[in-house]
Amino acid sequence: MIFFKYVATCNKEYFDEIINSETPKHSRFGNEGIVSDLNNKYYNDYELDEKCLVAITQLRDGKIHYVGAFDTKKSSVSECITIIENRAPEVKVIKSEEITHEEFVRELTLANQNEWLFRSDDFIVRQLGIRIEAESYSIFDGPAYVLSEKIYSDKNADRKSINKQLDDILASDSLRAEIDRIYSDENDKKFLGHPVHYLINAGDKGAADDIISILIPALLKNKRLIGGRVCDIDKIAAKAYREDNFYNIFKVGQGSTVIINLAVEGDVGRYANGYHDLLENIGKRLGEYGNDTLFIFVDVSGKRNISDDAIAALLANADMIQITEGYGDLKKSKAYLKRLAAKTEYKGYTIDDIVKYLPKDKTEYSVTDIYSAFNRWYGSGLKTHVYRAYKDQDIVKLEVKKKTAKPYEELQRMIGLADVKRVTDEIIANARIKRVRQTMGLENTATSMHMLFSGNPGTAKTTVARLISQILMDEEVLKNGHIVECGRQDLVGKYVGWTAKIVEEKFRAARGGILFIDEAYSLVEDHNSFGTEAINTIVQMMENYRDEVIVIFAGYPRKMQEFLDQNEGLRSRIAFHLNFPDYNGDELVEIMQLMIEQQGYKLESDAVLDKCLSICSAACKEPDFGNGRYVRNLLEQAILRQSNRIFAQKAGDELTKDDVITLKSEDFEVIGVKKQSKPYGFGGC
Of 37, 51, 143, 391, whose CA is between 20 and 30 Å from 189? Predict the structure, then answer.
């Protein structure tokens, strides 16, 4: 549904006649005024053909103000104007402007208060089927969702202006590539439906909004959208799946855009069934309205607590283009910060005042880095520019987690894994050569990309799989780059016929990404027929989805070899066999040093490092010592001891920053190595 506001002019005599006919007011059912009569006729026109509803809402400054609402499949802006002018030949529409649903309802209410509507505003809204609420709220457990609306236009959306905006926001290659597709001369410049929808990955909501502020005007300019209205749904809770008004948003959004923030509210574990129903119903709306309504899903890093496979199943209802935030050097980052700061009320600052909040160890900054620096500066500015009594007061800031570097850089920083890094480079090189061949009009042979990761627990198999998924998305090998993680319990059904269906659902959820099967050998260890059915179905699905899904099998080295020996068809479809060896003492210490740096700590001296090396070297001689997990446990125990030591030694004294970040020799003690009968789940490194 599209909502518009129209302004029309007429000669002074006719306008005076209208005013006189409406003064004094009559009762609604006895009113013979011109406005009331026209609104009644407009309403009858709508009841007759249901194309568009028009109503006069205000008389002001010699002009007549209207609102209009129409179904994009049945009518248009120009048809609304024709109806207005045909019913009142004395008037001429001189301006039309798209408005939000909220403003449309507000204008109708105003007309109703003037007794210009034959039917009440509430009745008309219900008849149009556009009843939605900005917030569905319960006094006991808060809102089910929060809705906001915004209108975008295609002003300043010519290609030159868009290119400048892309530079301004440090646009990623994925956004630039999509803009190229939108403006391509290969496309017809008319709206027939949405060929794709969007998944935006960013580390900050502001970064996602910047992407959207370019994407929507570009689509409008190229006739890929009918309306510029955007409904932004945020703070979705599990109970939203029971709200009729929530689902009505998607119906009312036809012809425009609906943004869904995947950062959900509440405890997903506690309300798992509710979230399952919610995502399933959103998926149905995506399938039902996706041709007429543009869906944009926003995934802000660290904010989503719904699993990848659940989101992947939702997104599988339509073709998705994934867009990520970009990066820039210091010069470009300064320009970005300057534009953000210019929108604030602060005066008397320099750009260097903001730049000092950027990470110190980088030469290239993500948009999230920039927004984080800006937000910290802005918060500091409240003390120095607004609430000046606090200007000399230092506030303790707790840094929860730093945003990771680019996936490829993060993989290169990992300790060891020479074979993994080599194979990754080969895959990247092959992907780039294929793109070159494609530009030359040469054929590309489809190659298998399925992998087998063999290694003991804690050797970084899952971490590497997650990084590879992002690297391959960046290199356009994968479309979405998400990873669906599962084990035997997620693939084998309880009854005959269930397993094949479950396996296929996992492959559908992983389309455009990676299906990571941990402890894959457990599917056949007990010789259960359901496990065999799972393996046979996996082999078939690997062939059916070979261009859409990369499967990674992971587990203990010896058991993975036995697993392959039982199914030659499976072995032949796996292109890369990657070994994840156990770490030695030196490598474990390097891993620990990275963890210490990432968590904002430091070691007091080299003597502490020597003690850690001695502990780790001894641990390596134990069977099933845990590799990277051992180091993580060692560091966690050290941090606990450090906290206890500080409070014992510094009770009543002031603490310095050096006190709270320094780890000493006495903080590190040998921890026991527990023999593991099986690997941990997906949370390890």
Answer: 51
| Residues 486/515, Cβ–Cβ less than 8 Å | yes
Overall pTM > 0.85: no
Task: State the pLDDT at residue 530.
Answer: 65
Token pair 């039982």: residue: 566
pLDDT value at position 501?
Answer: 81
Strands (DSSP E) contained in 330-412 are 364-366
Among positive and negative, which fits the CA dihedral 579, 582, 585, 590?
Answer: positive
CA pseudo-torsion sign 348, 351, 356, 358 = positive
Place of tokens 């992907």: 431
Q: What is the mean pLDDT of the chain?
A: 80
DSSP 583: P
Instruction: Please say whether the beta carbons of 310 and 268 come within 8 A.
Output: no
CA–CA distance, 501 with 311 (Å, rounded to integer): 19
CA distance 659 to 638: 14
CB 298 within 8 A of CB 205: yes
Chain centroid to Cα 514, Å, comes to 18
Written as six digits, the tokens of 204 are: 């900050």
Task: Tell me which residue of 124, 127, 143 sits closest to 135, measured CA to CA.
Answer: 143
Handedness of CA 505, 507, 511, 516 (dihedral sign): positive
What Å distances lie between residue 603 and 594, 597, 617, 647, CA to CA?
A: 12, 10, 18, 19
- pLDDT tens for each residue of 462-495: 888 888 888 888 887 887 778 888 877 777 765 5
| Dist CA 259 CA 232 (whole Å) | 5
Q: How far are the Cα atoms of 357, 372, 387, 399 from residue 379, in angstroms, in the given order?
A: 11, 11, 11, 15
Long-range contacts of 184-193 (CB under 8 A, 24+ apart): 187/222, 187/224, 189/222, 189/223, 190/223, 191/223, 191/224, 191/225, 191/226, 193/291, 193/292
Taking 80 as the threshold, does the pLDDT of residue 241 lie above it? Answer: no
Asked whether residue 240 carries a pLDDT value surpassing 70, the answer given is: yes
Paired with 608 in beta bridges are none
